[in-house]
Amino acid sequence: MFGLGAAGAAAVGAGALAANSLLDDPPVAHASSTSGPYPFYGEHQAGIVTPAQDRLHFVAFDVTTDDRAELVDLLQEWTAAAARLTQGKESGAFGAVGGAPEAAPDDTGEALGLPASGLTLTIGFGASLFDDRFGLAGRRPAALADLPKFPGEQLIPEISGGDLCVQACAHDPQVAVHAIRNLARIGFGKVSVRWSQLGFGRTSSTSRTQATPRNLMGFKDGTNNMKLEDADLLREQLWATAGDGSAWMAGGSYLVTRKIRMTIETWDRTSLAEQEQIFGRDKGAGAPLGKKAEFDPLDFGAKGPDGKPMIAADAHVRLAHPSFHGNAHLLRRGYNFVDGSDGLGRLDAGLFFIAYQRDPRRQFVPVQMSLARNDSLNEYIKHVSTGLFACPPGVRDAADYWGRTLFET
Fold first, then answer.
1. What are phi and psi of 349, to 5 degrees?
2. Which cofactor does it need (predicted)?
3. Do residues 191 and 164 make contact, with C-beta atoms less than 8 angstroms apart?
4. pLDDT tens-digit profile of 146-200?
5. What is the per-residue pLDDT across 321-367, written as a single tens digit (0 to 9) for each?
């Protein structure tokens, strides 16, 4: 789960909602360059199968109003702003300098002159939103069940959970930060920031046009990740359908976040041989142990000269592999983070894990439980933050808005 990528919904293929080929779906059309825009409108939200950008600003909000109408108004305002921002425009009609001098500007202005930079904005609804405040208690999807407590996790409540989340991904960090800043500005008095996370250096590829990146431990990350070109697999294991029990989520997906801090200094004193045994892959090429190339098939039955398995029973790649979890997968698009130091000369650094799936109960949960119990990598990492969000379907046109299917159907 931390590294090489896959978990999944073991038996969620039958009766799947028919979907268009993701190669033709506007939200995942390729931007013409790293400075160009992605379409905002479409069947699915952009920022899920969109080719992973280089930078992240992720934020979780608490809703501070108890008025359902105010919350719907905010979602409509946010949607209009997001449609503009993702196309490289300012967040409001008058922008940073076009309004009355006596009034606060419609945009904060720090992205003036910058292109769209592939910005995508993706919203999700946390389980805490489905309480008694807004009449949504009966609409909470079964797949949005609280995650169990995993062995060894050291979660910090203040940087976990949230009523709403917004994921901003872009190739320019200032563009991503500008987008989140303006959504928070628009939401003043209705929402407050609960926690946020900056990320750099994507740790997964979501398209076969992208090379596999490396995590801060130096290993290629996400080799077995689902890709946007895998249309059949995505229909089976990524996109929710009406038949899953919550019709309003059809075309949406479920997002799990985990902030995973690495004990960098200890890892850096570990031998190369041990590092490779822990991951089950060659550090240079990314090949499975015993093979030569990154994408060579894993052979869990192969043995070395000593008669022991080439890939150990507690190796990360074995425990996370789909063949041990009903041939199930996650779509991962996490990021590295470095949040300074902890005051003792140790880097506060690691992986901000992001994964989308059709049902976390059948995907993230069983794989993470296996990893938490058995993964030899656990000596060098700890999970300090968690989040689970239902990401609704895409916005179809300018008359639509984020979450309309939840509030109006």
1. -145, 160
2. heme b
3. yes
4. 999 999 999 999 999 999 999 999 999 999 999 999 999 999 999 999 999 999 9
5. 988 988 889 999 999 999 999 888 899 999 999 999 999 999 999 99
pTM value > 0.70: yes
With CA atoms as reference, report the closest residue to 60 among 198, 194, 255, 197: 194
Residue in the block written with tokens 């590092």 = 275
CA distances from 134 to 75, 143, 144, 146 (A): 14, 20, 17, 19
Contact 119, 37 (CB under 8 A): yes
Q: Torsion angle, CA of 306/308/314/320, rounded to 10 degrees?
A: 120
Q: How far apart are CA 364 and CA 325, in angstroms?
A: 10
What is the arithmetic mean of pLDDT over 13-20? 33
Q: Are 9 and 328 in contact (CB under 8 A)?
A: yes
DSSP string, 175-203: HHHHHHHHHHHHTBTTEEEEEEEEEEEES
**Which whole-number Å values give the CA distances from 191 to 78, 129, 228, in the listed order?**
12, 12, 33
Report the alpha-carbon distance of residue 382 to residue 221 in Å, rounded: 18
> What is the C-alpha to C-alpha distance for residues 372 and 319, in angstroms, rounded to an integer?
10
Contact between 52 and 333 under an 8 Å Cβ cutoff? The reply is yes
Q: Residue 12 and residue 146: Cα distance in Å, rounded?
A: 20
Which pLDDT score, from 0 to 100, does residue 18 have?
Answer: 32
d(C-alpha 262, C-alpha 110), whole Å = 33
Q: CA-to-CA distance for 372 and 365, rounded, in angstroms?
A: 10
pLDDT in tens, 187-204: 999 999 999 999 999 999
How far is the C-alpha of 164 from the C-alpha of 147, rounded, in Å? 17
Cα 226 to the center of its chain, rounded Å: 13
